[in-house]
Automatic annotation (TrEMBL):
Lineage of producing organism: Eukaryota, Metazoa, Chordata, Craniata, Vertebrata
Protein name: C-type lectin domain family 4 member A-like
GO molecular function, one term: carbohydrate binding
Keywords carried by this UniProt record: Adaptive immunity, Calcium, Cell membrane, Disulfide bond, Glycoprotein, Immunity, Innate immunity, Lectin, Membrane, Metal-binding, Signal-anchor, Transmembrane, Transmembrane helix
GO CC term (a single one): plasma membrane
Boundaries of every C-type lectin domain copy: 112-230
Topology relative to the membrane: Single-pass type II membrane protein
Database matches in InterPro entries: C-type_lectin-like (IPR001304), C-type_lectin-like/link_sf (IPR016186), C-type_lectin_CS (IPR018378), C-type_Lectin_Receptor_IMM (IPR051379), CD209-like_CTLD (IPR033989), CTDL_fold (IPR016187)
Example GO biological process: adaptive immune response
Compartment(s): Cell membrane
One Pfam family this sequence matches: Lectin_C
Length: 236
């Protein structure tokens, strides 16, 4: 586009400048030698215009190429961010969906029922932990059965506490799961005498050696703790 416009402008200038420079300089009476003299500058002018056009074309091409490769790069990073999990581990699925034969979890995630779980390394606040899970297309774990809790605690370090996806954002003891699963009072696994403090709005799983069991405990959301992320199986 840019090259075409420049081309049109150049032609216009060349045509208008040609007669302007020739006419005042052209003396009357000796047309034949004048004509042969004129053809050389004209040729030079056309050559110059041609060179100029070639240069402009090259520049336009380079600019276009740069833009295009930038576009390709952007597309690639987009693809990478949507396909965060490049390595999957799959097993034959019992899913009722006959077209989906394999049920998969990303590499290094564990699988239980139709969910995948991951234990990120490094302690973070509850909000940061939730964000970190979202960054992996997952969410903080939502525990809905004793079997699920027993499975996820199997791989846990008893000296570490792990945030789960349960919190009380308004501070009114209205417990909410991050994925909007309804809070079911009869499927909760609080330690005895927990939750204990109205100022503690986030829930973590920790191990109590005296009771020899894992359970839920309310904690201040700013505390830096481990966490567990969860996602639904990927069906292929
Ligand atoms: C999956 O299918 C196998 C064999 O068909 C069965 O033994 C197993 O219990 C099933 N598992 C689940 C979680 O349904
Ligand atoms: C899985 O874990 C191993 C060992 O911690 C690590 O080297 C590897 O990069 C991980 N793979 C993925 C896909 O995260
Ligand atoms: C609540 O949990 C109990 C015990 O696991 C279960 O029997 C019941 O169906 C659950 N209720 C709802 C609404 O999910």
């Amino acid at each position: 586009m840019a090259a075409e416009i420049t081309y049109a402008e150049l032609r216009f200038k060349a045509e208008s400048s040609g007669p302007n420079t020739d006419n005042p300089a052209a003396p009357e009476g000796k047309p034949t030698p004048q004509r042969s003299n004129l053809s050389l500058p004209k040729m030079l002018v056309s050559l110059l215009i041609f060179l100029l056009l070639a240069i402009i074309f090259c520049i336009a091409f380079i600019i276009f190429f740069q833009k295009y490769s930038q576009l390709l790069k952007e597309k690639k990073t987009l693809k990478e961010s949507t396909q965060k999990h490049t390595e999957l581990e799959c097993k034959r699925s019992n899913s009722s969906r006959k077209d989906k034969v394999w049920s998969c979890c990303p590499k290094n995630w564990t699988s239980f029922s139709s969910y995948c779980y991951f234990y990120p390394t490094g302690a973070k606040s509850w909000a940061e932990s939730a964000e970190r899970c979202s960054g992996m297309d997952a969410h903080l774990v939502v525990i809905t059965s004793k079997e699920e809790q027993d499975f996820i605690t199997e791989n846990m370090n008893i000296k570490t506490a792990y945030y789960v996806g349960l919190s009380d954002p308004q501070g009114q003891r209205h417990w909410q799961w991050v994925d909007q699963t309804p809070y079911n009072e009869s499927a909760t696994f609080w330690h005895p005498n927990e939750p204990s403090d109205k100022d503690e709005h986030c829930v973590m799983l920790n191990y109590r050696p005296l009771l020899q069991q894992w359970g839920w405990n309310d904690a201040r959301c700013e505390l830096l703790q481990g966490s567990v992320c969860e996602m639904v199986n990927i069906y292929l």
